[in-house]
Structures are given as structure tokens and as C-alpha cells.
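User: Show me a protein chain along with its predicted structure.
Assistant: Here is one chain, sequence first, then C-alpha cells.
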Amino acid sequence: MTRYLKFLLPALVVIAAIAFFALAPKSRDNLVVIITPSLDNPFFGWEARAAEARAKELGYKTLTFSHGDDAYKQNELIDTAIARNAAAIILDNAGADASVAAVQKARNAGIAVFLIDREINVRGAAHAQIVSNNYQGATLGAESFITAMGGKGAYVELVGKESDTNALIRSKGYHEVLDQYPDMKMVARQSANWSQSEGFTVMQSLLQAHPDIRGVIAGNDTMALGALAALEAAGRTDVVVVGFDGSNDARDAILRGRMTATVLQPAFRQAQYAVELADKHIKSGQTSQVEKLLMDCVLVDGNNARQLDNFGLKKG
């Protein structure tokens, strides 16, 4: 019996070691996956660049994708991140409700998920949700709009995707201010789905239906710039236009005197900060921050437009 134990015990040790390593959690690859709605849109493109650059500075490999606001494609990209054994995902998501399952799936797979720009409608799935203070920013834009309109006149509102919480929050912030002025008359409110081309076509239709409009307030700069192009094509250089995002194109339109203002949301810094929190979580297992983090917005008009560059304000 002793002779058999002599051979059996080493074998049991080997089997136990194999079982331990098979069941132990796999170490994460040194990879950060960055997923945004688009890489062509200036806003989403710059947040992707910011996240990628910061991740590389911190020593990570990166993969960058776009989901095109398609929740099904986003789900496939999350599966790719899981298959590649990513350490973290930086995500500007494809819908407040439609993205919940995908985010939870990544977390269940042991991947830290950090949302930027757009939040989801649950808490506890993402490790952090870093978003602009859209309500605060919208009130700044509305106040500038009212001043430029002289507190009266017919106007239209262009809103973003109804599935995007940001669209609803910005609209609510606008109306918190605008609705206090009885001589400000909203004659139409229509979605242009964050799109410049849709902003153009929607504005063409609205101009025909409401030729007396004196102002356009839009939920983002791309819609505002589409509306501006339609106004210019119709020879309407008398209409006040206010956007939201802080793009270079909006800056240039302000400097030309064709847009009144935009609201800068700090996309570049949000993306950097998301990577920094991801790095902290990867190294220590926690971020020491609450899940939802708000960054205040800044009004950009003729006074500071020259400082605006790629969704950030330069000093001086």
C-alpha cells in the first residue's frame, strides 16, 4: 500500500494543480477596447482619439471600433472584446435601454466597463458613467438664445435621437429657461437624429411651413450646422442659431457671425478620464468614485470661440 501511495500522491498533486489553474480566473490581456457611435463624426472621433492616446500613454494596447448607433452591432463588438480578453471597455453606447444587456454581459465576463457621453438607464452594470452635465449646459445655451432673440419671436427646436437620454435632458434644460418667456413661441419641435444631413432636410421643410421663424436651437452642433446650411441656401441670414457640443465647425460658424453660440461638453477630457479610471480599476480593483460622474459644460460664443479647439478650451 505504501508503495502505491508513493506514486499516487505526486499524481494527485499534479491533478490538483491542473484543476486550480483551470478554474482560476484568467488574467486579463493588456488591452483597452474603445467603442463609439462613429469615427467620422467629429465629436465621437475626438473622444475615440483621446481615449486611445491616453490608454497608450498608460501602457495599454488598444482596439477602436464604431457601432453606428446599432445596438446589435454594439453587442457583437462587446463579444469581440470578451473574446480578446480585454481588461477594459470605454463605450459611448447605442441607447440607454438597448445597451444595458451588453454592458452587463461584459461586466459578467470580468471586463471593467466605463461609459462616456451617454448614460444607460440602470446602475451597477457599468463601473462608471462619465457624462456631461447636459441640463446645466442646455440652460446656458437657452439663455444665450433668448438674449440673441431679444426675448421674443418664433423658433424651432431640433432634437436628437429619442433613444438617447442626452437628447431628452438637453431639451428639458432648454425649456426650463425658454418656457419662462411668453413671447418666445416654439412653432415646431422635430428630431433630426443628431445628423447634419437630416438637420438640413428638416430645416428646409420647417422653413416652408414656418417662414416667420427667427431662431433655431438644436440638441447638437451637427444638426445646427445642417440647419444653418439650409438657412443660408434660402438666403435667411437673419435667423439665430444655437447648437451644443463645441465642435470646430461650430466655432468657425460663430467666428463668421453665422451661429450665435454652442455649448462645449468636454468630450476629450471625459474620454481621457474614463481611461484613467479604468487604469486605476485594473490595478487596484476599484475607482474610489461614485458610478455617475458629471462634468460641467461651458458656453462658447463670440467672446471665447477662438479658444475652442477639438472639444476643449485652450488657455489664454
